[in-house]
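Backbones bend. To wit:
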Amino acid sequence: MDDFEPSPSRTGHIDDFLAGLTELTDLAASTPDLGATLQEVATVTARILPGRPTAAVTLRIGPTMSVATAGPFARTIDELRSHDQQAAAREAVKTARPVHIPDLTVDRRWTAYRAHLLAHGIHGAHAQPLILNDITLGSLNVYCAGPAEFDRHMRLAIALTAGHAAMVLGSATASAHQAELCGHIDRMVRHLFDTGLRLDRLRRTYERDETIPEKVRVDTDAVFTDLDSAINEAARAVLELAKAQLPARRTDRPWLTSRPALTP
């Protein structure tokens, strides 16, 4: 019998797992806030994986890492952040490959990381990179009390969940960047509009001043015309940029056909 063929006892959990993946996919459209999305991904992951382990989602945002945790060891994992000991997660992000530590008592990497987890009853860890369009966004990290919990079924479930999580977080990150850019665009449009009004008032005041020599008036009018043209061109460019930010409806779902990477 194939290792991944579900037994009758697993059928109910498989249904719950698939429903959880659908819930993750729906997050891409229902949760606009990046921080809330990150936490929801961690919460759903901890609930749907076999044995309901602790899940932590690490998202790379520029030079920093943002982390959300859920599950029985959530506080312990949160403490890793304050000690800068996210060794397995950082390695998974750096190499774009899973980091599998089935038994922390025999692993010899990252002494401080291992010691902290073992001291709090965590004996197994797995970090799965979150990859979307060949870009590593972060990692999905799972922690278990017993090393025997990381069987092939668990690792396959982690890899599948990571594929969906990458899509969700990629969409949320893009939305957050789009919202930030739209805010910049809005402020720029307002600034250009206000500048145009001030320039128009200055031009009218200048035209009413009869003491200004004709040659100076001609030269100044040319400057006003150039400034007015520059403001209008900038406004048109900003509006075109704003139009380009309108979300397009996506019909492709490449994550459904991607094959998750498993460690041997």
